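[STRUCTURE TOKENS]
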Amino acid sequence: MTAPVFVVERMPTGPEFVLDGPEGRHAVSVRRLEPGEDVVLTDGLGHWAEGVVRSAEGKDRLTVTGIGTVHEEPEPAPRITVVQALPKGDRGELAVETMTETGVDAIVPWQAARCITQWKGDRGAKSLAKWRSTAREAGKQSRRVRFPEVAGAMTTKQVAALLAGADFAGVLHEDRDHDSTPLATAELPATGSVVLVVGPEGGVSPQELTAFAEAGARPYRLGRSVLRTSTAGTAATALLLGRTGRWG
């Protein structure tokens, strides 16, 4: 089993480090780590280092020793971003969690026209904080050292601008009558950026499809079945990771 991952604000500069606060509490009181066990420390931005537990004190203080070289994981290529229309209830956090575990690089919440959920004022700020916290925790759980970025919620106009700057831009669209291409056969770049839009349960509106088409994003489909908005991004990410060789 791989060593558990803990997040630090700054990477250690010496051979010994004290992990305290919420991460220390999780290590000592939840994971109940003991001397001699291996751990990985990361800033979530691609930097990481291995260490060994020397001691655990109280409920939230873990001393890690034997810390060697701080490594840096290379930037992924191509970089995969999923624009996720806001799902209902807690299915947004589910989407973020599974996409993070799968390996997505960035997630963009999208206030689509047919979204029932609305991110406004304090509710919007709290929802965004939940998505970011979910990405962080899922990144740790899946032993990642480069966590996905979760952007602030975007409008359709902002999403179109993001698509226009991508090396590959697509919209997952479930309409059987629409002229969509299987994502499994799309020509993908070896480097650069891939941006894929996942619409809401009610589908992407004709006006949104037009705006995205003008930005260079064609419609694509995953398969014969229609996935929920909270699972489509994960399935698409897995397909893209396999096709681009990042899962090779």
